[in-house]
């Protein structure tokens, strides 16, 4: 018999259990031996990071076990395959209308697999279901939800006492001060390859111990597909060109962010929130495609620089976050081939052509609600660019315009409600500005092209 359950709003565990878990040091629950199987909740399961996380979990059943999957509901067939593959106990679907499609897909897959009586996972529909998934008792919660919607889930998981593997950088960008107040030492682990690399170069960071002698953190980036373009060429970039990333296959927003280097700006803000260094000590360099093997570096005052290197494959930083502070399971990916010759090059970022990094530092230095404005204004501008309404270069111009007109809410006054109000304000003002922006250039083609 198939089971369907609509949960009460909020975390599903009893209050007493939640308080007890939240009072325990994170290390006491996740630092067991390699034989310990960690229970994992995956938010954003059908996205790029979520799907790869399912692959990592399924490949290492002696280390990981998925207990809850959550997704928006746009791809119920994939979510059903993931649920059957992992044996997840519960599935959250933000769009309640997708529950029926998920149920039908799951039943069909179970029959095809020769297990027609395979029990349906507990269904957690709507935003209440997502909140229940975020508060579900587990060892590790992977937050791979898209956009600023991931912030409430991060706060819920931190309050529940779970180790949070954070792939939703908007959580830290928009709500960094909120997360800093909610997280205990060692409770937050980054999934982004750059921040994963940095934490591996900082001995003791996982245990909340200070790492002495850090001079600078250096984030690497491919430079995107337009790193050699002139300003005139950048103004003529089309959405199709911007969506063709040289290294990674990602969603449209993140791919365009990589082309404008807004993604690197967000990562600088994220690095400051995670590692508590000043913005003057966090920088970015271009490590161009097809190299992309040095994922970030930590420079020490004694003159040494530690770097983490690996082929570009998101399964490794995902596995690192799920297993942290242990090493991930063996053979997650093939290592670099050190028997051959290699050439690694690094280039400075031209901030005149790519001002996103300067704007990110400015927003981060203003603090409070300003990083949320940076993020929201960018998302509105990217949507307009992908719709063909504005040129590529108007994306960062829109961010600058909205930031200029924002009066920041200071860190100590920032609440979740204030973050949401700031996000709405920034989107409204971005849309107003976009109505007056220079239209995207019309690209004429010759007959027969």
TrEMBL record:
List of residues binding NADPH: 46-49, 72, 75, 168, 170, 251
EC number: 1.1.1.267
Residues that coordinate or bind Mn(2+): 192, 194, 267
Pathway info: Isoprenoid biosynthesis; isopentenyl diphosphate biosynthesis via DXP pathway; isopentenyl diphosphate from 1-deoxy-D-xylulose 5-phosphate: step 1/6
Reactions mediated catalytically: 2-C-methyl-D-erythritol 4-phosphate + NADP(+) = 1-deoxy-D-xylulose 5-phosphate + NADPH + H(+)
Cofactor(s) needed by this chain: Mg(2+); Mn(2+)
Any Pfam family: DXP_redisom_C
SUPFAM superfamilies registered for this protein in UniProt: 1-deoxy-D-xylulose-5-phosphate reductoisomerase, C-terminal domain (SSF69055), Glyceraldehyde-3-phosphate dehydrogenase-like, C-terminal domain (SSF55347), NAD(P)-binding Rossmann-fold domains (SSF51735)
Superkingdom of source: Bacteria
Residues holding 1-deoxy-D-xylulose 5-phosphate: 169, 193-194, 222, 245, 258, 263-264, 267
GO terms assigned for molecular function: 1-deoxy-D-xylulose-5-phosphate reductoisomerase activity; isomerase activity; manganese ion binding; NADPH binding
Residues in 1-deoxy-D-xylulose 5-phosphate reductoisomerase N-terminal domain copies: 40-176
Domain 1-deoxy-D-xylulose 5-phosphate reductoisomerase C-terminal: 188-275
Biological process terms in GO annotation: isopentenyl diphosphate biosynthetic process, methylerythritol 4-phosphate pathway involved in terpenoid biosynthetic process
InterPro entries for the chain: DXP_reductoisomerase, DXP_reductoisomerase_C, DXP_reductoisomerase_N, DXPR_C, DXPR_C_sf, NAD(P)-bd_dom_sf
Enzyme class: oxidoreductase
Protein keywords: Isomerase, Isoprene biosynthesis, Magnesium, Manganese, Metal-binding, NADP, Oxidoreductase
Domain DXP reductoisomerase C-terminal: 310-428
Matching PANTHER family: 1-DEOXY-D-XYLULOSE 5-PHOSPHATE REDUCTOISOMERASE, 1-DEOXY-D-XYLULOSE 5-PHOSPHATE REDUCTOISOMERASE, CHLOROPLASTIC
Function: Catalyzes the NADPH-dependent rearrangement and reduction of 1-deoxy-D-xylulose-5-phosphate (DXP) to 2-C-methyl-D-erythritol 4-phosphate (MEP).
Family: Belongs to the DXR family.
NCBIfam families, sorted: Dxr
Protein name: 1-deoxy-D-xylulose 5-phosphate reductoisomerase
Organism the protein comes from: Streptomyces albireticuli
């Amino acid at each position: 018999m198939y089971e369907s359950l609509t949960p009460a709003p909020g975390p599903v565990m009893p209050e007493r259990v939640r308080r007890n878990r939240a009072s325990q040091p994170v290390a006491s629950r996740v630092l067991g031996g390699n034989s310990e199987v960690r229970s994992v909740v995956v938010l954003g399961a059908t996205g790029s990071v979520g799907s790869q996380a399912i692959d990592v979990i399924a490949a290492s059943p002696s280390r990981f076990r998925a207990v809850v999957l959550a997704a928006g509901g746009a791809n119920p067939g994939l979510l059903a395959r993931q649920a059957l593959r992992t044996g997840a106990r519960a599935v959250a679907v933000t769009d309640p209308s997708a529950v029926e499609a998920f149920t039908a897909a799951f039943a069909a897959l179970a029959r095809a697999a020769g297990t027609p009586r395979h029990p349906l996972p507990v269904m957690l529909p709507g935003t209440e279901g997502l909140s229940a998934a975020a508060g579900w008792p587990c060892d590790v919660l992977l937050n791979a939800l898209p956009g600023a919607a991931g912030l409430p889930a991060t706060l819920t998981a931190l309050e529940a006492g779970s180790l949070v593997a954070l792939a939703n950088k908007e959580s830290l960008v928009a709500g960094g001060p909120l997360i800093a107040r909610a997280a205990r030492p060692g409770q937050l682990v980054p999934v982004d390859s750059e921040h994963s690399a940095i934490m591996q170069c900082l001995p003791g960071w996982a245990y909340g111990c200070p790492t002495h002698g850090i001079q600078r953190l250096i984030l690497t980036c491919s430079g995107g597909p337009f790193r050699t373009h002139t300003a005139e060429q950048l103004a003529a970039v089309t959405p199709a060109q911007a969506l063709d990333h040289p290294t990674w296959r990602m969603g449209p927003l993140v791919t365009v962010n990589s082309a404008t280097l807004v993604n690197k700006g967000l990562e600088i803000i994220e690095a400051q929130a995670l590692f508590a260094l000043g913005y003057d000590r966090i920088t970015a360099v271009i490590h161009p495609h097809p190299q992309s093997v040095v994922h970030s570096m930590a420079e020490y005052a004694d003159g040494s620089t530690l770097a983490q290197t690996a082929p570009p494959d998101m399964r490794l930083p995902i596995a690192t976050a799920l297993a942290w502070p242990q090493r991930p399971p063996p053979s997650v990916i093939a290592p670099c081939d050190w028997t051959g010759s290699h050439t690694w090059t690094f280039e400075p970022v031209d901030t005149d052509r790519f001002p996103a990094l300067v704007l990110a530092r400015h927003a981060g230095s203003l603090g409070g609600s300003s990083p949320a404005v940076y993020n929201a204004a960018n998302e509105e501008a990217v949507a307009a660019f992908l719709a063909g309404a504005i040129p590529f270069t108007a994306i960062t111009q829109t961010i600058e315009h909205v930031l200029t007109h924002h009066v920041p809410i200071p860190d100590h006054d920032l609440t979740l409600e204030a973050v949401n109000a700031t996000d709405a304000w920034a989107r409204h003002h971005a849309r107003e500005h976009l109505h007056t922006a220079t239209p995207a250039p019309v690209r004429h083609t010759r007959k027969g092209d």
